[in-house]
Amino acid sequence: MGQSVRLRAFAKANLSLNITGKNKDSGLHELDSVMLSLDAFDTVTVTERSDDKINVRFVNADIGEDNTAAKAARAVQAVIGGGWDITVEKGIPIGAGLGGSSADGAAVLRALDVMYKLPARGVDMRNVALSVGSDVPFMLTGGLARVRGTGEDLFFIENKAELFIVGLMSGEVSTARAYAEFDRLHESGAFCPTDNDKLCELLLSGDPSAVELAGNALYAPACELAPQIQKNAELLKSHGAAVNLTGSGGMVLGYFTDIQKFAACARALGGMQGFYVFAPTRTGILHERL
Hints:
Blueprint: E1 4-22, E2 29-48, E3 54-59, H1 68-80, E4 84-89, H2 100-116, H3 125-132, H4 136-141, E5 144-149, E6 153-156, E7 164-169, H5 175-185, H6 196-205, E8 215-216, H7 219-225, H8 228-238, E9 242-245, E10 251-256, H9 259-269, E11 275-278, E12 285-289
Parallel strand pairs: 1-8, 3-4
Antiparallel strand pairs: 1-2, 1-12, 2-4, 2-5, 5-6, 7-10, 7-11, 9-10
Helix pairs in contact: 1-2, 1-3, 5-7
């Protein structure tokens, strides 16, 4: 059996998600988002094969062949050849907007980089990551970053604000339908509910008021598609949380800077189906050789 690498691929939250327009070449929506890594993770194991087959197996999830783990492996294979068995043990809630799919793609890229030192073999990690998914470049590094464009422009900062986070699943939302609904609601093609300059400044200084700036341009479109989002948002607000949808949904996150209020919310809502507790992490991926 060939070499093998196992990784923890961490989730992400969108503290903010502004939509600034559409890319003229790709037609993709361009974003200005502040992303934060969370401690929920998928465990991804990549094992070298002696042939050129790529096999992806999911544990705890029913995910088809068109997945980002396979896409990432094929992108690398196109440059250096090879084949791999990939196992993904899902720990990140599916359909939550926490970037589980992107985390898996990033984990495969990182595993193959550990095995083969990909840049030395002609693989442009940034471009390959972008080809797999717009969140993948951030997931490769993780932590806290302002991400602009279609994922290619990243500015990493240190988060000095102490955050305690709860989440409520509110119904799965199709990303494509959320963006289509956004386009219907915003003819200009842009909506920026958050001052990201100020948000980054407050996070870097450790100012607890940073969470009050959380916002998501897809909140109203997602609520149209899954009304439970707004109900859960109001519930979390009633417990003192600063509330934001992550990604296109359907998880609503409640941010606390007061651990007592956080604990009280967790005690009150901990028995609800789809309730989660998260903490920020400083990295997107951790790996070990097997």
